[in-house]
Specification:
Chain lengths: 794, 278
C-alpha cells in the first residue's frame, strides 16, 4: 500500500521528515568553503605526481631518456610501466554474464604501447606539481606512431589495424535479440519509418576533477587512500587484488566529492599508478587530474550510431522495432564494470515503455584508439529513448496522427503491471498513463499547439517534443555481481545512540554532492524519532561504514535509505525496551518523538532521550541486571524480488528555432517522473533538473571532437561546450508516486531520469519546429550548422 | 596544469616599467591576467618576468576632451560598461561590453589587455575599428600614436613593440546623430564570438552617408566590410550588400562551423544589425 496515502504508517509520524524539503546538513559547510576535497588534504612529506601522456592515438613505446627529468629540481622519482608492473598486476575488464565480451590486459602504465591520445605513459613525482610538470617536459620519449583505428564504422573492416592482435579483431562484444515476428509486423504495417541516429561522444565534466591521495604507512603496512570516488569498498577490493594486499591493509576514504556522474566509479590506470608509486616510495603521493588531462583521461560516454526502424498500423498501434547499434569504446573495456553495459542497456530499453511484442536488436561494441568509454549518468537510456521517441515522431507524421496520441495509445497501461517488455525486462509498477496525462495538462498541450500554429503564420518556428522514458534503479546483484564483479549490491547502515540523544549513522552509500547524507539523515531522524539536527551521517570510509556498493545506478536513496530505515526502526525498538523498564511501562505504549520518550496514545512527554542516555551509559548500575541496552544496531538491505526497480516518466521540450541562423532557444522544459516515494522533494527535483541539463548538453552542446588521426580537438573548457545556466529553460518537475513494494520506504532512484529523456525531447522539438521545411536532424549534438544544412541553407 | 616558475615585479610608475621591459627581453605585462595567467598555466608561453601594471596610477580613467574620448588601458571591462560617459557618447561600446565573457572576468579584464592580446573573436578590437580609434603606445623613447587601421597585424599580433606599453585608447566622438549597432553569435552567453558585427554609421533619411561595418571572428583580426558598406552607402538593397560580403570576408572554419556557414552568419548579422540601427 502507498504509505503516504494511508495516513496511518510510521511515515506520517508527528516528527516525520520524509517527504519534506529539509535543508541539506552539508550545504552550509560546502558553501562556506569548509569542505574537505582530496586537494584540501595536506600530509607531511606529501609528493605530487604528473603524467606524461601519449601525443599519439597509437604508438609503440621504444623507451625513454629520463636522465634530465630525474635530475630536475624537486624530482623524487620517475616511473615507467615496467617499474609499476612489479607492484601492480594488470586487469582485464570482462564479466561472465556478457557472453563473448573480450578485452586486453591493462597496466597501471603501459609496458610497450600507447593506445589513445592522452594515455599516461610515464610518471614523475616531485615536491610540487609544477616541478613535476617541469620535469615531464624534459622526458625524451621514443615513440613510434602506429596506424590507428579511429572511426568506429570502420573498426571491423579488414583494412583497419586490429588494436590487440591477440584478440583477433576489434569486436569487443555483440548481442542480438529477436522477439516475436518482426518481419511479419513490418510487412503488415501501414507505415515503416527508418532513421540513423548518431549520439555524440561526450564526457561528464565534474566540478572537482578526479583526485587521489595514496598514503602508504610502512610502519603499520597500511594504505590510507583519500579518493574522490563513488564506490570506496570496490576500490579497496581492487587495490588489494592488484597490489596483493590483505583487506586490512587498505582503507579508502572518500570525503567530500565534487560531482561524479559515473566518471568516478571506474578504475583508472593513472590512479592505480599513483597508488603503486606511493607503495614504492613509502610516502603520500597525490594526483589531481587537471581539466585538460581530464578531457583525455576521464572516461568518455555514449558514441553510438543506431539504425532504427519502426512499424506502425493505420490506427496508431506500434507493431515493432528493429535496431542496429554500433558503439566505439576506446582501446580497452573499462575495469571492473566493463564497457559492454551501455550497448546492452540500449538493447534492453529501446521500445521499453510500449506494448509492442515484436523486437529485433543487434548491438556491437568495437575497439578504437580513442579515450576509453564507459558508464556515465543514465547509461544507455538517452540513446534508447532517442531512438524510440525519434521513430515514434516520424511514425506519427507518417500516419498523420498527433505524437501525444500515438504515445497515449501505446504505452503499457498502468493497470497492466507487473509486466514484461518485449526485450524481457520486468516492470513491477509503472505509471505511463498517469504521467502522460499529467504532462499534457501541466504544459497545456492543446493551447501550446494552437500557439505554435499561430506563430508559424508569422514566421516564428517553435517546436514541441515529447519523450517517454523508463529508468533502471535500485539494481540487485543482477547488474554486476552475477557476472563476477566484486561490487556490492547490498548496503548496510549502522546507528549509534549517544548519551545526549544524538544519533550517528554510518552507511555504505556515498555523498557525491547529490544530497545522500541529507536523505539518510531524514530517514534516520524519522525512524528513530529524533530531531534532524541530532543526526550525523558518516559515509565514504571503508574502515568505519558497513560494507556497501556506494553510489551508482540510482541506488543511494532506494537501497541505502531502506537500510537506514530498517536500522532506525530497530534502534527505536531497543530504545523503547530500555525506556519501558525505566518508566515501568509496556514498550508498546511508548514512542520516541522529537528526541523524547512519549506516551504513544497522546504524545505526552515521559522522559527526554538524554535522560535515557544518561542512565544507560553512566548509571547502568540502576538498571536490572538482565537488561542489556543495545544502542548500536546495523541493518542491511538488498532488493531481491526484481533485478531492478524500474521507474518511469515523461518529458517535454518547447523551443524556438531561428531559421536564419539555425540557433535553438529553449523556452521551457517539463518532466513528470515517478520514483516511488519522494523522500526529499527538493533534492529529487534538483536531481531531475540537473539531469535534464546534462541531457540538454548532449542534445545541443557537448561532444568530444576527434580528427582522423585520433587527436581530440576540443579538449578545453573553451572549446568543449558544457551547458550553462543562461541557455537553460525553466524546468517544471512534478511526480506520480508508485512506491516499490520491494522495500518499506518504497523509494526508487531519481538521479538519471532527467538525462534519460531530455535529449529526445529536445531533438524531437527541433524536428517539430522544422517540420514545415521538411527538414530533420538526427545527430547529436545538433548544432546550428546541422539545422541550416538540414534546411538546405548552407 | 601549473605554471612554471616566473619572476614578478609590481612597479609604481611607467618609467620603471620601461626600464624593466628594456632589461628583460621576455618579460610580459600583467594587466587583468584573464588571458595571460590562463596561458601560463597551460604553459603556452614561458616568460621569465611578469610586470604587473595594476599599481600604476592614472591608467584607468575615462575622460572627454576636445572631441575625443580617452580610455585608460587599465580600464576594466566592468567599469567601461558602467561608465555614463561611454553610455552617452560611445553607445557601441556600451552595447558590446555585456557580451565580453562573464562577470568575474569582466571584473578583472582590461581594454588594454584585450587590444594588446588581439584575439580575433573579441568585441573591443572590433569596436575600436568601427569607431576609428587611435592607440597610444609609450616606451622609454616617448609616446607613439597608432591608428587602429594599422594596429592589428595578424593573429594575436599587433603593432605594439616588446618595449612598449599601451597606455590609452582615443576615440573621436561620432558625428551627431550617428547610429550604432552590435550583435554576435555565440552558442553560450559569454563565449568568444563565432561571428560578430560592430557597426557605426550616419543615416540621412533612408540613405546611409557613412557606415563602418567591423566584423570579428571572421579573420585574423577585425575587418571592415568595405564592399558591403559601399553597397549600402550607394542605396543598394540589403540582399546586394549581403551578397558582396563574400568579397569582404574570408572566414576560416572552426570546430563546429564551415567557412560557408560563417559567411552565412555574417550575412544574417548584417541584415539584423543594420535594421537595428535607428
Ligand atoms: C573564460 C573566458 C572567456 C573570455 N571571453 C571573452 C570574450 O568573450 N570577449 C573578450 O573580449 N574577451 C574574453 N576573455 C578575455 C578577457 O576579456 C581578457 O580580460 C582580455 O582579453 C585580456 O585582458 P587582461 O586585462 O586580462 O589582460 P592580461 O591577461 O593581463 O594580458 C593579456 C596580454 O596583453 C598584454 N597586455 C596587457 N595589458 C597591456 C598593455 N597595457 N600594454 C601592452 N600589453 C598589454 C599582456 O602582456 C598579455 O600578453 C575571456 C577570458 C576568459 C578567461
Amino acid at each position: 500500500m502507498n504509505a503516504r496515502d494511508s495516513g496511518l504508517t510510521f511515515l506520517d509520524r508527528p516528527n516525520s521528515y520524509i517527504g519534506r524539503s529539509v535543508p541539506r546538513p552539508n550545504a552550509r559547510r560546502l558553501v562556506m568553503g569548509r569542505g574537505t576535497y582530496v586537494d584540501d588534504i595536506r600530509l607531511p612529506r606529501l609528493a605530487h605526481i604528473a603524467f606524461l601522456r601519449s601525443p599519439h592515438a597509437h604508438a609503440k613505446i621504444r623507451g625513454f631518456n629520463l636522465d634530465a627529468a630525474k635530475a630536475a629540481p624537486g624530482v623524487i622519482g620517475v616511473f615507467t610501466g615496467a617499474d609499476l608492473a612489479k607492484v601492480c598486476t594488470p586487469w582485464v575488464a570482462v564479466l561472465s554474464h556478457f557472453k563473448g565480451l573480450k578485452s586486453a590486459p591493462q597496466y597501471a602504465l603501459p609496458l610497450d604501447r600507447a593506445c589513445w591520445t592522452g594515455e599516461a605513459i610515464c610518471a614523475v613525482v616531485a615536491e610540487t606539481r609544477a616541478q613535476a610538470e617541469d620535469a615531464i617536459a624534459l622526458i625524451e620519449a621514443d615513440l613510434d606512431p602506429l596506424p590507428a583505428a579511429v572511426d568506429m564504422e570502420a573498426a571491423l573492416d579488414p583494412s583497419t589495424p586490429v588494436i590487440h592482435p591477440e584478440l583477433g579483431d576489434n569486436l569487443a562484444f555483440e548481442r542480438t535479440l529477436d522477439v516475436g515476428d518482426v518481419d511479419t509486423a513490418f510487412r503488415n504495417a501501414a507505415a515503416v519509418v527508418e532513421q540513423t541516429f548518431q549520439i555524440g561522444r561526450h564526457t561528464g565534466v565534474t566540478l572537482e576533477p578526479r583526485a587521489i591521495l595514496a598514503d602508504w604507512n610502512d610502519g603499520e603496512e597500511k594504505f590510507t587512500i583519500y579518493h574522490s570516488f563513488q564506490a570506496p569498498h570496490m576500490m579497496q577490493d581492487i587495490v588489494c587484488k592488484h597490489l596483493d594486499l590483505p583487506e586490512a591493509s587498505v582503507r579508502v576514504v572518500c570525503k567530500d566529492v565534487g560531482g561524479s556522474f559515473g566518471i568516478k566509479v571506474h578504475i583508472y590506470p593513472d590512479e592505480m599508478a599513483t597508488v603503486a608509486i606511493a607503495k614504492i616510495l613509502k610516502r603520500p603521493v597525490k594526483f589531481i587530474a587537471d581539466r585538460m588531462e581530464s578531457f583525455v583521461s576521464d572516461i568518455h560516454a555514449r558514441d553510438h550510431r543506431v539504425k532504427g526502424k519502426m512499424a506502425i498500423a493505420a490506427d496508431g498501434e506500434i507493431l515493432g522495432f528493429e535496431i542496429d547499434d554500433l558503439t566505439g569504446i576506446g582501446p580497452y573495456s573499462v575495469y571492473p564494470r566493463t564497457s559492454a553495459v551501455e550497448a546492452n542497456q540500449v538493447v534492453n530499453l529501446t521500445g521499453g515503455p510500449y506494448r509492442h511484442k515484436n523486437y529485433r536488436a543487434r548491438a556491437r561494441v568495437v575497439f578504437q584508439n580513442k579515450v576509453p568509454m564507459c558508464q556515465y549518468r543514465a547509461v544507455g537510456h538517452p540513446i534508447a529513448v532517442m531512438v524510440t521517441e525519434g521513430l515514434i515522431d516520424l511514425a506519427a507524421a507518417a500516419i498523420k496522427m498527433d505524437p501525444a496520441k500515438v504515445r497515449e495509445k501505446n504505452v503499457i497501461a498502468d493497470d497492466a503491471h507487473p509486466s514484461v517488455a518485449a526485450s524481457g525486462i520486468k516492470f513491477e509498477k509503472l505509471s505511463h498513463q498517469q504521467s502522460l496525462k499529467k504532462l499534457l495538462s501541466m504544459m497545456d498541450y492543446d493551447s501550446l499547439r494552437k500557439e505554435q500554429a499561430e506563430l508559424r503564420k508569422k514566421g516564428i518556428h517553435r517546436g514541441i517534443g515529447i519523450a517517454t522514458f523508463i529508468e533502471i534503479t535500485n539494481p540487485s546483484a543482477a547488474f554486476y555481481g552475477v557476472g563476477g564483479a566484486r561490487i556490492s549490491s547490498q548496503d548496510g547502515c549502522t546507528l549509534r545512540l549517544n548519551p545526549q540523544g544524538g544519533v550517528i549513522a554510518s552507511i555504505g552509500v556515498t555523498e557525491q554532492g547529490q544530497g545522500t547524507e541529507a536523505v539518510i539523515a531524514q530517514v534516520v531522524a524519522t525512524a528513530v524519532g529524533v530531531p534532524l539536527s541530532d543526526v550525523r551521517v558518516i559515509t565514504g570510509d571503508t574502515d568505519t561504514t558497513p560494507y556497501g556498493g556506494g553510489t551508482w545506478a540510482c541506488r543511494a536513496a532506494g537501497i541505502g535509505g531502506e537500510a537506514a530505515w530498517q536500522s532506525g526502526k530497530a534502534l527505536r525498538e531497543n530504545i523503547l525496551e530500555v525506556a519501558g523498564v525505566i518508566l515501568q511501562a509496556a514498550p508498546g505504549t511508548l514512542d520516541v518523538r522529537d528526541g523524547k520518550i512519549v506516551d504513544k496514545a497522546n504524545g505526552n512527554e515521559r522522559m527526554p532521550l538524554a535522560e535515557l542516555g544518561r542512565v544507560a551509559y553512566f548509571r547502568p548500575d540502576t538498571l536490572p541486571a538482565d537488561l542489556k541496552p543495545e544502542f548500536v544496531v546495523t541493518r542491511h538491505y538488498v532488493p531481491k524480488d526484481y533485478p531492478f526497480a524500474f521507474t518511469n516518466g515523461i518529458q517535454a521540450s518547447y523551443l524556438e528555432v531561428d531559421t536564419d541562423t539555425g540557433f535553438v532557444k529553449l523556452l521551457k522544459h517539463w518532466c513528470v517522473e515517478d520514483c516511488g516515494t519522494v523522500l526529499n522533494p527538493q533534492l529529487v527535483d534538483e536531481q531531475v533538473r540537473g539531469g535534464i541539463v546534462q541531457g540538454i548538453g548532449a542534445a545541443l552542446f557537448e561532444v568530444c571532437r576527434y580528427d582522423e588521426n585520433g587527436q581530440m580537438l576540443n579538449a578545453t573548457m573553451a572549446d568543449y561546450l558544457v551547458p550553462m545556466a543562461s541557455e537553460m529553460p525553466d524546468i517544471d518537475v512534478t511526480h506520480v508516486v508508485s512506491p516499490t513494494a520491494s522495500s518499506e520506504l518504497g523509494a526508487k532512484g531519481a538521479g538519471e531520469a532527467g538525462t534519460a529523456g531530455a535529449p529526445a525531447a529536445v531533438v524531437n522539438a527541433i524536428n517539430d519546429a522544422l517540420s514545415p521545411f521538411k527538414a530533420n536532424v538526427a545527430a547529436q549534438p545538433v548544432t546550428p550548422q546541422d539545422i541550416l544544412k538540414a534546411m538546405g541553407k548552407v | 596544469m601549473k605554471a612554471s616558475e616566473v619572476g614578478y615585479a609590481k612597479p609604481a610608475s611607467l618609467p620603471e616599467v620601461f626600464a624593466l621591459l628594456e632589461k628583460n627581453e621576455d618579460a610580459r605585462l600583467l594587466a587583468g591576467g584573464q588571458s595571460l595567467i590562463a596561458g601560463l598555466n597551460m604553459r603556452l608561453s614561458n616568460p621569465t618576468l611578469l610586470i604587473d601594471i595594476n599599481g600604476i596610477a592614472g591608467l584607468n580613467t575615462i575622460t572627454e576632451s576636445g572631441g575625443t574620448i580617452r580610455i585608460g588601458a587599465l580600464t576594466r571591462h566592468l567599469d567601461l560598461g558602467a561608465s555614463p560617459l561611454i553610455a552617452a557618447k560611445l553607445p557601441l561600446i556600451a552595447k558590446a561590453v555585456p557580451h565580453i565573457a562573464h562577470m568575474a572576468i569582466r571584473n578583472r579584464g582590461t581594454i588594454g589587455g584585450s587590444l594588446a592580446l588581439s584575439d580575433p573573436a573579441t568585441e573591443l578590437p572590433a569596436c575600436c575599428l568601427a569607431l576609428n580609434a587611435t592607440m597610444t603606445a609609450a616606451s622609454s623613447k616617448g609616446e607613439r600614436k597608432i591608428p587602429v587601421k594599422t594596429f592589428f597585424k595578424g593573429l594575436f599580433e599587433t603593432d605594439l613593440k616588446q618595449n612598449e606599453v599601451l597606455t590609452a585608447i582615443e576615440i573621436p566622438l561620432p558625428a551627431a546623430g550617428s547610429l550604432s549597432g552590435f550583435s554576435e553569435l555565440v552558442r553560450r552567453h559569454g563565449d568568444y564570438a563565432i561571428v560578430g558585427l560592430a557597426a557605426q554609421g550616419v543615416r540621412k533619411g533612408s540613405s546611409w552617408s557613412q557606415l563602418n561595418l567591423s566584423y570579428f571572428g571572421v579573420g585574423d583580426h577585425p575587418v571592415l566590410a568595405a564592399n558591403a558598406s559601399e553597397a549600402l552607402l550607394a542605396d543598394k538593397s540589403m540582399a546586394d550588400a549581403q551578397a558582396v560580403l563574400a568579397s569582404d570576408l574570408s572566414p576560416s572554419e572552426d570546430a563546429e562551423n564551415s567557412a560557408a556557414t560563417k559567411l552565412h552568419f555574417a550575412r544574417v548579422l548584417l541584415g539584423r544589425v543594420v535594421a537595428s540601427m535607428s
